[in-house]
Each structure stands twice: as C-alpha cells, then as structure tokens.
Write a structure and sequence with these properties.
- The complex is a heterodimer of chains A (250) and B (269).
- With 250 residues, chain A is mostly helical.
- Chain A contains 8 helices and no strands.
- The radius of gyration of chain A is 21 Å and the shape is elongated.
- Chain B contains 11 helices and 10 strands.
- The chains are: A mainly alpha (250), B alpha/beta (269).
- Chains A and B meet through α4 of A and α2, β6 and α3 of B.
C-alpha cells in the first residue's frame, strides 16, 4: 500500500468520526474514561522523566558554562527555556507516544481482531465516532496538561539538583528563572503539545483500527504506530519551530 | 424478509462468492452450511453490511440495503442481533454491562428498567449469578450465552449467529442450538446461522443453504438432506461411516422399513 493510500484512509477515518452521537451520555462516559486512562495512566512516568530531565539539564548546563564571566543565574534561565521549549513538550510527548500510542493501537487492534468493533457496527454504532473521537479529544485535553505539569516539575528538578549539588544558590536560581522571560515560549510549548497530542492519539488509532489478522499483527501495528508517531512528532517539532520562532535575529 | 440476489464478492483475484441468491424464511432458523473457505462467513458479513458485495442486492423487507442511507442503515442495524464466532464480548465490561450496552446506547430507560431487562434475558439464556463476572472469568459456552443475551436484548427482528458451536463440546453445542431454536420461535425472529456442525444442521435447520466453493450448491430442509442425491452435500454432511449409517437408518425409518419407535434395549438383548 502506498503512502498516499494510507494517508487517504487516515483522512477518511478522521472524517468518519464526525457524526451525531447515538447517545451523548455514553460518549461522555467513554471520553471521561479515556481522560483518566491517558492522564492518570501516564502521570507516574511523566513525573519521573520531568523531574530528572530538569535535574540533568541543570547539572549539564553548569558543566558546560565554565567561564567565570557568565553569571550563575544563566543556568536557571537555560534550564527554564530548554524545559519549556523542548524537553517538556517534545521529550514528554515522545515518551507518551510509546505509553499512550501503543496502548491505543493495541486496544483498538485487539477489539478489531476479536470482532468487538464488528459487534458495535452491527448494533448501528459509528465505531469511528465512539472509539476514536473520545481518545483523540481526551488526548487533546489531557496531554497539554501533562506538558504544563512536566515543565513545572522539570524546572523544580533543576532547582533541586542545582541547590543540592551546590552549583548555584536559591537566590541565583530564582533570579535566573525570572530574567528575560518570554511569555510566547509557553504558548509555543502549548501549540506543540496540542499538535503532538493529535499525532499521539490519531496515528495509533488509525493503525489499531485497521489491524487485520491476529496477535502478531496487533504487535506489529503497535510498533509501527509508535515509530511513525515519533517520526511525525520530530517532523512537526521542526516545522513548528521554523514557522513560529523568530530565528532571523531581527 | 431477507432476500439476496446474485451476490458476488472477491478479495483481490480470489472470488469468494459467485452469484449467490436465496430468500431467507421469516420466523425460521435458516442455516448456511459448508466447508471452511466455502464463503459462508463472507456471505453472512455481506448480509449484515460488514462487507460490501461487489455485485448483487440484499433486500430487507423490500428495501435494498445498498440503497439505504446511513440513517436507514443505523435503524436497520438496531433490528439486527448478532452472535459472533468468538462471542465478541467487551473485555472491560462485566456480563451485565455487556448485555446492558445496547440498552444504554439506544434507550432512555432508567437504570432499574435496564437491569430488569438484562436479568430477563440472562435468565432466558439460563445465566444466573454471573452478572458481575468479566468475560475472562466465564467459560466458552457461557460467553456464547451472554452473546445471545446481548443480541436479543433489544428484541431484534433478525438474529445472525456466526458458528455458534465453534470451540464448544457436543453437549454445550446442543444447549446453544436448542436455545437459538427456542428464541427463534419465542421472539418470532428470522434467524440465520452459519455452521458446519452436523448436529445443528439436523436438529435446527428449518431452511438450509449449502455453500460450495463460493456457489450455492443446494437448498432445502433438514428432512430433505436425508434423501438428497447431491454428492457434494452428502460427502460433506455424512462424511464418516457412522454418520452414513445414521442416514441409512433415518431413510429406512422414513420409508417405514424399520419401526422408528423401536425399543433398542429389547433389540440389543
């Protein structure tokens, strides 16, 4: 199957999601269930990686800034901007592509193989609207929240590592945290997290929904979904950086 | 009434159904039989709209399925119940929630009303005290019964069963067959069963369609099978010497050559 055929089927799947729900209450329940699955289910890993990436970022920045003319507060500023601009949205979303993406692909794949999707179709339910839309909407709401939490925890991790290893004082860290703050960076991180959330949920949903075969194919679809989601996240990351960040220096 | 005319379906170069036509009888147990790969599952999936035939018409009560819009198809599907080969129960839901699912989706009943209906149908399929169990905690036969309960909970007009006996022991198979037969009569449903279980064929087949390599090879009742001269059908149904002997006995009974009320205990003394 060519890439254009796959793309066409993916777009048709997205188009197929838009229909009047058979029963709004059941859809709402499914949406809330997915919010909990995606949000609570990946909270632990997000907390751990966010804290440590902030801590490592502080230590490694201090290691590289050897010149005595660069103020210590710059370490905090670099940690802040690195975490907000790249680590929190991109790194966390790549991890979530593995955690959430493989879960969505294997769940839907298993439902397809065990004829549960067919059973829903027979009942007269739009399976794209009932199974895929709540997952995508839940991801669009919960993943940006996780990214904001990750940014906060990353900076906090940097502070604890900085203070704990005696790299800089709390006064220097707080000073650096506030200096040259660009509010747009936060918006940029949010725009990225919405884009990545859509990629993380819709691509695995496509691969899971269209599985044909058995357990082996579910595994393959899951792996393929994660790999393609990661590539698309990195590609979108570059495109968004080019489009939204003023890199001309003017 | 369900009628299908000149159904043709292929996957790539492989023609799976070739010009198949039949009328399924209302309020009866219609069986589609045939060897594995004969096209019976594809035919059933075409009938319920899971596959789109390449050619031909499927007509439900005079309305062509291919000419129905999405809304009409949705309404028709709410009149269809289906039991899948692997039962297709939702893993994350309990038995009760599985059966309640169509009610949650398509009715505005209160929870008490829905529970009452769920208990009614679970009682009907002889499943008590399993409401809170998950599909992984029940046996294959129980799963099939939950599947039947879910299929009939909305009082459908049509019931489709895809190999209801697969993976079951002969005794449980008979229980499921009997249940399908009773439900067909009780609810006045048009039932379509896809099977290659010989006991089902002889016990429940009000109307039988025999498929062979994508073609309709034979059509009749379970009584007609005994006297059928169709070689392909005979070699499929009465494949073993034991079944061939059973057929001969039935033929002798029907012709009055042996007493069908004979006392076997006496004869075997």
């Amino acid at each position: 199957m060519t890439i254009f055929t796959e793309l066409g089927r993916y777009l048709l799947m997205l188009k197929g999601m838009f229909s009047k729900p058979e029963n709004m209450r059941v859809y709402w329940k499914e949406f809330m269930h997915q919010c909990s699955e995606i949000g609570i289910g990946s909270l632990f890993i997000v907390v751990i990686i966010s804290f440590f990436m902030g801590a490592v970022s502080a230590v490694q920045t201090a290691y590289q800034l050897v010149s005595p003319i660069i103020p210590k507060a710059s370490i905090a500023q670099i940690v802040r901007d690195t975490v907000i601009l790249e680590f929190a949205p991109t790194l966390v979303c790549i991890v979530l592509a593995g955690v959430v993406g493989s879960k969505i692909a294997s769940e839907l794949g298993n439902m397809r193989v065990s004829e549960q999707i067919d059973a829903l179709e027979i009942m007269g339910i739009n399976t794209k609207a009932y199974l895929i839309a709540p997952r995508i909407v839940a991801a669009l709401i919960v993943i940006p929240m996780l990214v904001v939490l990750s940014a906060g925890l990353g900076i906090w991790g940097g502070r604890i590592a900085g203070l704990g290893s005696g790299i800089l004082s709390s006064y220097d860290f707080d000073k650096g945290l506030k200096q040259n703050f660009v509010a747009f960076n936060v918006w940029f991180a949010l725009i990225k997290s919405y884009t990545f959330a859509f990629i993380i949920s819709s691509i695995p949903a496509y691969f899971g929904y269209n599985v044909k075969g058995g357990a082996l194919e579910i595994g393959r679809a899951s792996t393929r979904a994660v790999v393609i989601s990661c590539i698309m996240i990195l590609f979108a990351d570059y495109i968004l950086a080019q489009l939204l960040l003023n890199t001309s220096g003017g | 009434m369900i009628e299908f005319k000149n159904i043709r379906k292929s996957f790539g170069d492989k023609v799976v159904l070739n010009d198949v036509s039949a009328i399924l009888q209302d309020g009866k147990c219609n069986l589609i039989i045939g060897t594995s790969g004969s096209g019976k599952t594809v035919l059933m999936k075409c009938l319920v709209g899971l596959f789109e035939p390449d050619h031909g018409d499927i007509v439900y009560d005079g309305v062509n399925f291919s000419e129905m819009n999405d809304e009409q198809r949705k309404l028709l599907r709410q009149q269809i119940g289906m039991l899948f080969q692997g039962s297709a129960l939702f893993d994350s839901l309990t038995v009760e929630k599985n059966v309640m699912f169509p009610l949650n989706m398509f009715t505005t009943w209160t929870y008490a009303e829905k529970r009452k209906r769920v208990n009614e149908v679970l009682d009907r399929v002889n499943l008590k005290d399993s409401n809170k169990k998950f599909p992984a905690e029940i046996s294959g036969g129980m799963k099939k019964r939950v599947g039947i309960a879910r299929a009939i909970v909305l009082n459908p007009k049509y019931l489709f069963c895809d190999e209801p006996n697969s993976g079951l022991d002969p005794q449980t198979s008979m229980v499921i067959d009997k249940l399908i037969q009773e439900i067909t009569v009780e609810y006045n449903i048009t039932t379509v069963v896809n099977t290659h279980d010989m006991n089902s064929v002889m016990e429940t087949g009000d109307h039988i369609i025999y498929m062979y390599q994508g073609l309709k090879e034979w059509e009749g009742t379970n009584q007609d099978i005994i006297f059928s001269k169709n070689e392909k059908l005979n070699s499929f149904i009465f494949a073993s010497n034991f079944l061939q002997d059973a057929k001969d006995m039935r033929m002798l009974e029907a012709k009055g050559k042996i007493d069908n009320n004979r006392n076997m205990d006496e004869l075997l003394k």
